[in-house]
Design a protein that fits this description.
Layout lengths: L6 E2 L5 E7 L3 H8 L2 E8 L5 E13 L4 E15 L14 E5 L1 H7 L5 E3 L2
Antiparallel strand pairs: 1-2, 2-5, 3-4, 4-5, 5-6, 6-7
Length: 115
Protein backbone atom coordinates (compact mmCIF):
# COMPACT_ATOMS: atom_id res chain seq x y z
CA UNK A 1 0.00 0.00 0.00
CA UNK A 2 1.10 3.57 -0.53
CA UNK A 3 2.54 5.45 2.45
CA UNK A 4 4.27 8.81 2.85
CA UNK A 5 7.69 8.96 4.47
CA UNK A 6 7.76 11.69 7.14
CA UNK A 7 11.54 11.56 7.49
CA UNK A 8 14.30 9.81 5.55
CA UNK A 9 17.98 9.82 6.54
CA UNK A 10 20.31 11.19 3.86
CA UNK A 11 22.16 7.84 3.82
CA UNK A 12 18.85 5.88 3.68
CA UNK A 13 19.64 4.11 6.97
CA UNK A 14 16.37 5.26 8.60
CA UNK A 15 12.81 6.06 7.49
CA UNK A 16 9.93 7.33 9.61
CA UNK A 17 6.28 6.87 8.69
CA UNK A 18 3.12 7.73 10.61
CA UNK A 19 -0.14 5.79 10.77
CA UNK A 20 -3.27 5.24 12.82
CA UNK A 21 -2.94 2.92 15.83
CA UNK A 22 -5.88 0.85 14.57
CA UNK A 23 -4.39 0.33 11.07
CA UNK A 24 -3.54 -3.00 9.51
CA UNK A 25 0.11 -1.82 9.30
CA UNK A 26 0.36 -1.65 13.08
CA UNK A 27 -1.06 -5.16 13.53
CA UNK A 28 1.26 -6.56 10.85
CA UNK A 29 4.37 -4.93 12.38
CA UNK A 30 3.39 -6.25 15.82
CA UNK A 31 3.32 -9.76 14.31
CA UNK A 32 6.44 -9.39 12.12
CA UNK A 33 8.78 -6.41 12.31
CA UNK A 34 10.48 -7.08 8.94
CA UNK A 35 9.37 -4.51 6.38
CA UNK A 36 10.10 -3.40 2.82
CA UNK A 37 9.61 0.10 1.42
CA UNK A 38 9.67 0.73 -2.33
CA UNK A 39 10.11 3.82 -4.51
CA UNK A 40 9.70 3.93 -8.28
CA UNK A 41 11.59 6.12 -10.77
CA UNK A 42 9.40 6.71 -13.82
CA UNK A 43 11.91 8.75 -15.82
CA UNK A 44 13.08 7.29 -19.15
CA UNK A 45 13.60 3.51 -18.72
CA UNK A 46 12.83 4.00 -15.04
CA UNK A 47 13.94 2.05 -12.05
CA UNK A 48 13.15 1.15 -8.48
CA UNK A 49 14.58 1.23 -4.99
CA UNK A 50 13.65 -1.18 -2.19
CA UNK A 51 14.68 -0.61 1.42
CA UNK A 52 14.45 -3.64 3.71
CA UNK A 53 14.75 -3.52 7.46
CA UNK A 54 13.13 -3.77 10.85
CA UNK A 55 10.33 -1.55 12.11
CA UNK A 56 9.36 -0.53 15.59
CA UNK A 57 6.29 1.37 16.71
CA UNK A 58 6.27 4.48 18.85
CA UNK A 59 3.08 6.11 20.09
CA UNK A 60 2.67 9.56 18.52
CA UNK A 61 -0.62 10.76 19.93
CA UNK A 62 -3.91 9.34 21.20
CA UNK A 63 -4.67 7.47 17.97
CA UNK A 64 -1.37 7.67 15.99
CA UNK A 65 1.87 5.71 15.82
CA UNK A 66 5.23 6.48 14.27
CA UNK A 67 6.73 3.59 12.35
CA UNK A 68 10.51 3.79 12.72
CA UNK A 69 12.38 1.68 10.17
CA UNK A 70 16.06 0.83 10.55
CA UNK A 71 17.17 -0.07 7.02
CA UNK A 72 19.51 -3.05 6.72
CA UNK A 73 19.48 -3.71 2.97
CA UNK A 74 19.01 -1.66 -0.20
CA UNK A 75 18.20 -3.16 -3.60
CA UNK A 76 18.23 -0.73 -6.51
CA UNK A 77 17.88 -0.84 -10.28
CA UNK A 78 17.79 2.64 -11.78
CA UNK A 79 18.64 3.24 -15.42
CA UNK A 80 18.65 7.08 -15.42
CA UNK A 81 21.06 7.06 -12.44
CA UNK A 82 23.05 4.07 -13.78
CA UNK A 83 22.54 2.12 -10.54
CA UNK A 84 22.70 -1.56 -11.42
CA UNK A 85 25.04 -4.49 -10.80
CA UNK A 86 25.57 -5.52 -14.43
CA UNK A 87 26.13 -3.54 -17.63
CA UNK A 88 22.86 -4.70 -19.26
CA UNK A 89 20.61 -3.85 -16.32
CA UNK A 90 19.25 -7.25 -15.35
CA UNK A 91 20.83 -7.49 -11.90
CA UNK A 92 20.06 -4.95 -9.14
CA UNK A 93 22.76 -3.30 -7.08
CA UNK A 94 22.56 -4.53 -3.47
CA UNK A 95 23.94 -2.74 -0.43
CA UNK A 96 23.91 -4.17 3.10
CA UNK A 97 24.50 -2.20 6.26
CA UNK A 98 26.42 -2.97 9.40
CA UNK A 99 24.57 -0.66 11.80
CA UNK A 100 27.31 -0.82 14.45
CA UNK A 101 30.03 0.16 11.95
CA UNK A 102 27.84 2.93 10.55
CA UNK A 103 27.13 4.39 13.98
CA UNK A 104 30.80 4.31 14.93
CA UNK A 105 32.09 5.77 11.65
CA UNK A 106 29.47 8.47 11.09
CA UNK A 107 26.89 9.44 8.50
CA UNK A 108 26.80 7.34 5.35
CA UNK A 109 29.20 4.76 6.72
CA UNK A 110 28.45 1.11 7.20
CA UNK A 111 27.03 0.40 3.72
CA UNK A 112 28.77 -2.35 1.75
CA UNK A 113 28.06 -3.27 -1.84
CA UNK A 114 27.41 -6.96 -2.40
CA UNK A 115 29.25 -8.47 -5.35
Amino acid sequence: RVVVARETADDLSFVQLNTRLDSRKVREIQNNDRVSLMWEDRRARGGWLVLKGRARLQKAGPDRADVLVEVQRIEVMDYPENLKADKDGYVPMVLTRDAAAGAAAGKGAGWKRET
